Amino acid sequence: MVGAILGSIHDIPQNLLQQIKDFEDTFTVDSTKLKQVVDHFVKELEKGLSVEGGNIPMNVTWVLGFPDGYEQGTFLALDMGGTNLRVCEITLTDEKGAFDITQSKYKMPDELRTGTAEELWEYIADCLQQFIEFHHENEDLAKLPLGFTFSYPATQEYIDHGILQRWTKGFDIDGVEGQDVVPPLEEILKKRGLPIKVAALINDTTGTLIASSYTDSQMKIGCIFGTGVNAAYMEDVGSVPKIAHLGLPADMPVAINCEYGAFDNEHVVLPRTEYDCIIDRDSPRPGQQAFEKMTAGLYLGEIFRLALIDLLDSRPGLIFNGQDTSKLRKPYLLDASFLAAIEEDPYENLSETLDLFERQLGIRPTPPELELVRRLAELIGTRAARLSACGVAAICKKKNIESCHVGADGSVFTKYPHFKARGAQALREILDWAPSEKDKVSIMAAEDGSGVGAALIAALTLKRVKAGNLAGIRNMADMKTLL
To answer: What range(s) does the Hexokinase N-terminal domain occupy (predicted)?
Structure first.
């Protein structure tokens, strides 16, 4: 109900109240729809594991099992996300589940997103070199294994290599798609006199799964709710028909990087609005990442902006009458933090939201208009959280998991108000828990998957090499030099 949300409902003109109601009808996703989404999601997860494949890649990662908590050693970790590049040095200590970390963060320049492959690898090498020269000047680095977190869909026939399937998160760099991303990085590092070898190429979601399970044995799923969306979980090899030809033991566990931002690219079940359609149409990759474009942080501010532009154009004079709204017409001007700030405004008169609009958009909304934008932000944020829960629920249904912890990372999960609570409520509805039952599947803040997870997976890989389990390892000679 509108009245349950708005503080001054009686002061809102009828035409604005009607518009709020229209937005509620547009963005609300009820329990029945959530369950439909999850049922289709389960089928798509299965299809991705099949020989034929489907929209969701369901990438085999060659991470074969969880850590036991006693892994040891010092590792470099390189984390290339959507916004930042991070270089870490992680020491897994002899205390169970404990580690020390030293790290530096570098912003990914915007021009890199559409630059050249050479510029990308040179920039990464620059950052890694800076970090190493500061922390390891004149030291032999040949035995310092690198875990490389590359948070983009990659096909991995080996854990130490990966072929980029397609760019996501707004990246579109020529000459990288369809290529193995490890050799060009190692080549540039070698040219600079840095004899560093990639022991494991991982996705941040897989890293989140492994790092979280290092400190919590109930962790069964790792998720990212940030610039993009994704999940990873442990599957039995026997349930992955597309690797049946390798003849591996059916009960061997292998981590699957779902890359389920691509869920429902065929537009079968997701409740898309006209704003979602515009985002897809005008994106660098129309027809791809349908689920991500409705739930990820990169797009929430744009959905909000498009809804306001629609009101300005279709109902002139309804909002911001007589004001200059030209700034609002710039695509992707607003990000998820804009909506988060609106939702966090503690004042009944929404004075912080008023300041935000004046500062960023040069617009001074009236009190009723402030109520409308507050409700719109809530609706978009709530829809994202509820739909995001569908991916977790689908993995639980597919694996018959009745109770577990889910490790979650990403800016939307950690910074967007009420996201966690809204997702938890959606899970309750989807999985039909009784009102008296506690949450059986709990989504909680993850350990540092892209840093600690990368180090752990490098450690697990070297442990396997030592034990003679060589499935999914390509450069055996390089691995043995790291032992």
So the answer is: 20-214
Alpha helices of 192-335 — where are they, by DSSP H? Answer: 204-215, 274-282, 290-295, 297-314
pTM value > 0.85:
yes
Spot the catalytic one: 86, 166, 305, 422.
166
CB 182 within 8 A of CB 202: no
Beta carbons within 8 Å of 180's beta carbon, 6+ residues apart: 161, 162, 163
| CATH number, domain containing residue 140 | 3.30.420.40
Please give the average per-residue pLDDT across 148-176, as a whole number: 89
- What residue numbers bound the domain in which 179 lies? 69-207+449-482
374 catalytically annotated: no
Q: Is 110 a catalytic residue?
A: no
Check residues 154 and 473 and name the one with the higher pLDDT: 154
User: Is residue 286 domain-resident?
Assistant: no
Annotation marks residue 436 as catalytic: no
Classify residue 162: in a domain, yes or no.
yes
Tokens 């040069």 correspond to what residue? 362
Q: For residue 153, give the 3-state DSSP assignment.
A: coil
DSSP letter for each residue of 35-82: HHHHHHHHHHHHHHHSSS--SS--EE----S---S---EEEEEEEE-S
Catalytic residue, chosen from 160, 204, 280, 409, is: 204
Task: Note the pLDDT of residue 153.
Answer: 86
**Strand duo 253-257 + 229-236: pairing:** antiparallel
210 forms beta bridges with none
Domain count, the chain: 1
Task: State the pLDDT confidence band at 467, using cuts at 50, 70 and 90.
Answer: confident
The one catalytic residue in 86, 151, 388, 411 is 151
Beta strands in 93-168 (DSSP E): 99-107, 146-150, 154-155, 163-164
Query: What percentage of residues in the chain have a pLDDT greater than 70?
Result: 95
Q: Max alpha carbon distance in the chain (Å)?
A: 74
Q: What is the DSSP letter of 322?
A: T
